[in-house]
Please model this.
Amino acid sequence: MSKKIQAIRGMNDLLPEQSPLWQYFEGKVRDLMRRYGYAEIRTPIVEQTALFARSIGEVTDIVEKEMYTFEDRNGDSLTLRPEGTASCVRAAMEHGLLHNQTQRLWYQGPMFRHERPQKGRYRQFHQVGVETFGFEGPDVDAELILLTARLWQELGLMEHVTLELNSLGSLEARAAYRETLVAYFEEHHALLDEDSRRRLTSNPLRILDSKNPDMAAMLDAAPRLMDHLDAESRDHFAALTAILDDAGIDYVINPRLVRGLDYYSRSVFEWTTTALGSQGTVCAGGRYDGLVEQLGGKPTPAVGFAMGIERLILLLETLELMPAAARPSLDLYVLGMGEAASRAALLLGEELRGALPELRLQVHCGGGSFKSQIKKADKSGARLALLLGEDELAEGRVTLKFLREECDQQSLSREALVSALPELLAD
Model:
């Protein structure tokens, strides 16, 4: 026998019973973006490899180890996008969206990284991202944080997440700090693990983000970037925290928060939770004022964030915050007994869908006995079954059977059905 073909490790199917919670979450996000005036942008899944190498950084783990890169038939090096910011910047530049104008954009879709799969962290994963362009001040940084805070409130997650803030300063201030940090790490070289020693010459700020408990005390005593900021970055960060204070948003300043991508500068933030074990970050972002210029455009201030949908869905499930409205269910299951009644049931279903657009209705297909059809109606989760048989057809009536409540069956005329259903389903 031929070997059974299965999904690629770390790339998961989303099954019908899981889809309603995703649709609920995505609907909340879409509605929130509309209310804040953000426009949706959709970019290709595949981009030129150089886009990510230039934007993310040649010596980051993503570029060195995790990207899905291949040559196409023309010999061009292409990559499945590992994150959304670079693609959004490329699209905005290519289509003239940054020319003497500001932009508030958002997107959602799959990203790809070849990591060790674990709960809440997959090789194909999905993100919601927001990118803003042309805003220099801290007000838009604050707006993004306020937007995410409102999402947590509406999902019931606010008391389960913590906002962490830091500032990475300007590129010049960070370069000077880098020298100070490298000198400190050289003094404590014996305490560095293998991964940190490799990063010492390539990306020393990432050492600060190490989760190695053996290095914790040494990292806590390391020079802090916040103490080496340029005056403009200090003022920017102070103004940001002042807005958050006025808005009543609690936060923790985390001097070891550096983010994993090279393009960040000034304000960076993460929303974290303790409810998911080691996979604690559910949303992260910050400023990347130099990225547009780095990719060949004119200097453009920019700030954005991304949130992992799988991780947030897992958090909602873990905390049992899935609303009843997000569970798969039907209002009505229509059965037809016999060939003529089955045809009539299909037409009646279309009539009801036209008259009651919000009605969740399924018509039985495939025939079968009354007993088997009622079993399928019950399994569907519908509240009511609508029965059509020879008698009902002859009399121009329908029979309503309550599947979830102890109520007597009702016989209604076809004319009365449309007006009766909303009331019957209102409770």
Notes: The longest strand covers residues 103-112. The first helix runs from residue 19 to 36.
